[in-house]
Specification:
The complex is a heterodimer of chains A (about 425) and B (about 230). Chain A has about 425 residues and is an alpha+beta fold. Chain A is built from 14 helices and twelve strands. A six-stranded mixed β-barrel of chain A has the order 2-3-8-5-7-6, surrounded by four helices. Chain A has a two-stranded antiparallel ribbon with strand order 11-12. Chain B has about 230 residues and is of the alpha/beta class. Chain B contains seven helices and ten strands. In chain B, the strands form two sheets. Chain B has a six-stranded mixed beta sheet, sandwiched between helices. A four-stranded antiparallel beta sheet of chain B has the order 2-1-4-5, with helices on one face. In chain B, a hairpin with a 2-residue loop joins β4 and β5. In chain B, α3 packs across α4. Chain B is globular, with a radius of gyration of 17 Å. Classes of the chains: A alpha+beta (about 425), B alpha/beta (about 230). At the A-B interface, α1, α11 and α14 of A face α2 and α3 of B.
Chain lengths: ~425, ~230
């Protein structure tokens, strides 16, 4: 073993109690950072997969160009025609990274049970396509119960799903009949009978008493159009999202139709806001942990230096250079950091295993039902926090060790 | 050329508001092969003089030359290299690194120099054997007696084959038989290898064995005499 590492290791062992407390401080810091990082990663993955698979949005959504800015004001001008849809589907079919392209038509109106009515936002979907997208989900979200009742069918256009809030508010539970009213594309009022076949949990609780899901053919009949307002694209691999968007953009610029393409993360406000919030919280946790670790290590190394001033003087007299003293204490501190991180790794793995076994559930904010709570092991967070803690531990040792290295040798030798 | 040469060396310390002149204008030469004692009462400046010769302290004024080179102008790193290459130290309280074994302590100066572990091990075992302490090579200092520790310290001081060994009160903490054995060992090294020894002492047992006595009083050399062996 390197003699300096040997001195470092044995010096740590010599002051066992102090070293153990510092190891625990580093270990708990490491575990705190990685458990929190694992929880935020679980949140991000769940939000992402929930948006893409559970709610059937896919990875990319194509709109008629200008839809984002003017689509709400002039909906008829921003619909994708049957020929547009055919061109989009053909382009998607040509790309092996794309699994599915499914049209949708969103509309708003009033839903009534015959006695009372309420505002409704309805998503017109192709039920078989959405079922296929949901079937591609993996991990936590794959076990999410999507609806209560019967699945929507492509061939039963009047069979619809309503949010639990709508069902509760208007007593429109599965099996109930009602009416959905909406203006047509020309602005005339239109109404069609519906039969509720399912209820579902809305992605955001505030929308639970407004959301409905209807077959696309029903939405097109109500809206009096053969067009759709968007096409959702499902990819084989989420990592290809940006690349496929660029390819499609290039293809449509060259051959038309004129479309704008949004990625899942650009559309999902919830994902972006939650990610930013947790990133900020994580940054604070990380900084606090780093400060605690640095203070602990400085304290430990300072005490070690104070106790070993005569030893430092002896080593200097024997010819060890100043940077050799720095190296000695940096090694000791780095070893402390490394062992502390290993303790932290054990704590992290223990917590991860405990959560895996206990399978706790929780109700996240804005979600109306219990979901499994998980903590992911995130390799890059483990590696980065390990490297940061060991590096910071070594840097923290420099301040007290530098003072000792620069001390007068005779004074150090005479130190008692 | 003398091994160590001090010219008009002064060393002052500040102790609070008091200025202490530990060494006051000393001129001195130490030659290779010498076995010298610097002696005098406490506070006479003998330790300070040894520290200056050992390049672990710098004079307030004057020059200290080692093998003709003024070492006071060298960088700290270069001074460290000169110490490691050419000077060995033996301390009154042994100053062994407590977490290392006797062998590892002796290997230290060689490992500081960058010698391989195998070479350092071989040379260190040889020195421990010479010092008659090889049987305790794997013991830590707290398991050794005072005499054994001092033998380890001597082995450490000699392991780099230095030109000069500075020994600060090397027999002060030892009983008389042990002190004699230690002195025999150092005298033998001095004779066989020509290593110069400079002792700071007021131990009569040691003064009786040296070939030159430098008597210091109040920071100046009062007497410098050769003792016929």
């Amino acid at each position: 073993m390197n003699p300096w590492l040997q001195i470092a290791a044995r010096s740590l062992a010599r002051n066992r109690r102090r070293s153990i407390f510092t190891l625990l401080a580093i270990g708990f810091g490491f575990a705190a950072v990685n458990i929190f990082a694992g929880f935020t990663e679980y949140m991000f993955v769940s939000l992402r997969d929930g948006f893409i698979y559970v709610y059937g949005n896919g990875h990319l959504t194509l709109f008629k160009k200008g839809f984002s800015n003017e689509g709400q004001l002039e909906p008829r001008n921003y619909l994708l025609t049957e020929s547009d849809l055919a061109a989009i589907k053909a382009a998607c079919k040509a790309d092996p990274r794309i699994m599915l392209a499914t049209p949708k038509l969103y509309l708003s109106g009033m839903v009534s049970n015959g006695k009372s009515s309420s505002i409704a936002i309805a998503f017109g979907i192709v039920p078989s396509d959405i079922a296929f997208i949901a079937s591609r989900a993996t991990g936590t979200v794959s076990s999410a119960k999507l609806y209560y009742g019967q699945p929507l069918r492509d061939d039963v256009s009047f069979g619809v799903g309503v949010g639990k809030g709508v069902a509760s508010k208007l007593n429109l539970n599965p099996g109930a009949d009602g009416t959905l009213m909406s203006p047509t594309v020309d602005g005339q009022m239109n109404a069609l009978d519906i039969k509720v076949v399912q209820t579902f949990n809305a992605p955001v609780e505030a929308l639970s008493d407004k959301l409905m899901v209807v077959p696309l053919s029903f939405a097109q009949s109500l809206y009096d159009t053969k067009s759709v307002d968007r096409v959702c694209v499902l990819l084989k691999d989420t990592a290809d999202t940006d690349a496929v968007m660029q390819s499609l953009n290039a293809a449509f610029v060259a051959k038309g139709p004129a479309v704008e393409i949004k990625t899942w993360y650009a559309i999902s406000d919830m994902y972006e806001r939650t990610k930013k919030m947790f990133d900020i919280i994580f940054m604070f946790v990380f900084i606090i942990v780093m400060i605690i670790v640095v203070i602990s290590v400085i304290n430990t190394v300072t005490m070690s230096v104070m106790e070993r001033i005569q030893e430092i003087g002896t080593l200097r007299a024997l010819g060890l250079k100043r940077h050799g003293i720095l190296k000695l204490f940096a090694l000791e501190s780095g070893l402390l950091g490394t062992l502390g991180c290993l303790v932290g790794l054990v704590l992290t793995l223990t917590t991860w295993t405990a959560v895996k076994i206990a399978k706790p559930t929780w109700v996240p904010p804005a979600i109306s039902h219990r979901v499994p709570l998980e903590i992911y092991l995130v390799p890059h967070y483990l590696v980065i926090s390990f490297a940061c803690l060991v590096t910071l531990s070594m840097i923290a040792a420099i301040f007290p060790a530098r003072k000792a290295a620069r001390a007068n040798i005779v004074e150090s030798l005479g130190h008692v | 050329m003398s091994l160590v040469e001090l010219k008009a060396v002064r060393k002052s310390y500040s102790l609070g508001e008091t200025q202490i002149d530990a060494v006051r204008g000393v001129d001195l030469e130490i030659n290779a092969h010498e076995f010298v004692a610097v002696w005098g009462p406490s506070g006479s400046g003998k330790s300070t003089l040894c520290h200056l010769m050992g390049i672990i302290d710098s004079p307030t004024s004057g020059t200290v030359s080692f093998r003709g080179q003024d070492v006071t102008t060298l960088s700290d790193d270069r001074q460290s290299e000169v110490r490691n290459d050419s000077i060995g130290f033996i301390f009154q309280s042994f100053n062994l690194v407590p977490v290392l074994t006797a062998l590892e302590n002796v290997m230290l100066p060689l490992q500081i120099r960058g010698e391989t572990k195998a070479i350092a091990h071989e040379k260190s075992m040889a020195r421990l054997r010479e010092a008659g302490i090889e049987g305790h090579a794997h013991h830590r200092p707290h398991k050794l007696s005072g005499g054994q520790r001092q033998r380890v310290a001597i082995a450490r001081a000699l392991v780099t084959d230095p030109d000069l060994v500075i020994a600060d009160e090397p027999t002060a903490n030892l009983d008389t038989p042990t002190a004699h054995r230690i002195l025999d060992l150092m005298r033998e090294v001095n004779r066989s290898r020509g290593t110069a020894f400079v002792f700071s002492t007021h131990d009569q047992r040691l003064l009786d064995r040296v070939t030159r006595q430098i008597h210091l009083r109040d920071g100046v050399i009062e007497e410098d005499k050769l003792i016929p062996s």
